Amino acid sequence: MYITAAWTAVLAIIGALFGIALTLTPNFPKTAPSFVLFLVVLLGYYYRDTLARPIRAGWYGLAAASAVLYVYYMVAIVRERILEPPYYDFSLYWIYAQVAVRGQNFYDANNAVAFLQSLTLPVEAYADRFFDLYFQYPPPSMFFFLPLGHFGLHSGAVLWYSMLAIGLVVDIGLLSTILLERRDIETFLVVTILVLGLGSTYESFGLGQANCIALLTLLMLWRHRESWWGGAWLTVGILIRPVLALLPLYLILERYWRALIGAVVAALLLSALAIARFGTSVFVAYLASFQLVSTGHYPNKWFAEDQNASLLGTIVKFMHDVPTQHAAFLNPMYLVIAGLIFVITFLVVVALDKSEYSGLAFVLTVPAMLMIYPPTGFGSTLLCAVPMAWLLRNRAQFPGGPLGAMVIVSIAFAASRTTGTHYFFATAVLWSALLVMARKALATKPHAIGIPGQRLTSLFGIK
């Protein structure tokens, strides 16, 4: 083993242990029950055929009761949010859509303020977060929100949450069939507990965020990664959650050229439609809006909030340092650590080039981009359901064995039910575990490495 390999392994182990310690220690009373519950569910699921009949019956009862309870909580949240739509984020989507339907520039916050003043909605609810009244997505994204402009606030909430609920059910089905490759009731129960039990799911529905739709596009990209449709799904996902904008690099490294071309064509087509529908002035305003980011006004404040689950947000909160003279993403510690995460992930993805471990390269990219992307909110960590499900499916190949894989996933599951900082460490634990798994894969089966990977294995410490 070379120094490079030892360094990589040590980095992964330290990251995992650091994440575990910070996940379980500060909020142990909160995380411990969720950790134990999910670990018991996983142990019963994977060893159910060896359990005595009474114990197996007890497991079915526990899994069914947990799934029903999580569904009940989710239905309660949806009902509450329909009756009283949240200011963030659904009401903002509705406001943007109302402005767009009226033919106004939805990148001009003054138009949103004028619309709010014409109604009974309190403008002061947004006064301390005026930046939120700027549409922060690319112009073609408006097609996703535009239908809300034809409905009132409450009827629009019914439409919106119905779409989110359908997307969530489809997510559960896709995770079961695509990643776990099982269609039985036991798998459906476990995936239901996994998805509905994640704190990011509750946060997404509580705020009306479309993270479950972003998860759907991520799963469809993986399902159709060899075709044009995979790229089209990726473009839709980027328009909903810009954090996915790092995935085209994965397509390039893995040489999924059809998917990449599909993504570009879909982006150009949707941009042309957006220009035809909203005008070129909207695109000019969108590009001009980037000046707000460079001033560091709103984004810097947001990084210090508990809802931020990125590496940068975690550093800003730990250091209690919110810069006022420059953008927060210029933080030296962030740039160094984010650079290391990017380089290590880049090398591993290239080394696993279109081999039998291509799935590992894909799922390793997900937590990496969530950590690196500065605006990552805790709702976006719902995307971690993909590496969690993949890790469970390939538990036998995990260096710690099946039990080790289940423990890692249970830690991430429990951590997601606490605070934004712990969401980050849940993501870091998954990335570290997958990195260790990649190290083992490259060491034990070098013959499966692709041609570009053979040129870089020396950098990863493999003969």
How are the secondary structure elements laid out?
Blueprint: H1 3-24, H2 28-46, H3 53-83, H4 87-101, H5 109-117, H6 142-145, H7 153-179, H8 185-197, H9 199-207, H10 211-223, H11 228-240, H12 247-253, H13 257-278, H14 280-288, H15 290-295, H16 298-303, H17 311-319, H18 332-351, H19 358-372, H20 385-393, H21 401-415, H22 420-444, H23 451-456
Helix pairs in contact: 1-22, 2-3, 2-8, 2-21, 3-7, 3-8, 3-9, 4-5, 7-8, 7-10, 10-11, 11-13, 13-14, 18-19, 19-22, 20-21, 21-22
Core attributes:
disordered C terminus, single chain, globular, 463 residues, mainly alpha
Overview of this protein structure:
- It is a single chain.
- The chain is built from 23 helices and no strands.
- It is mostly helical and 463 residues long.
- The protein has a domain at 1-32 and 289-463.
- α3 (53-83) packs across α8.
- The longest helix is centred in the first third of the chain and has 31 residues, at 53-83.
- 46% of the residues are buried.
- Residues 20-25, 447-453 and 455-463 have low confidence and may be disordered.
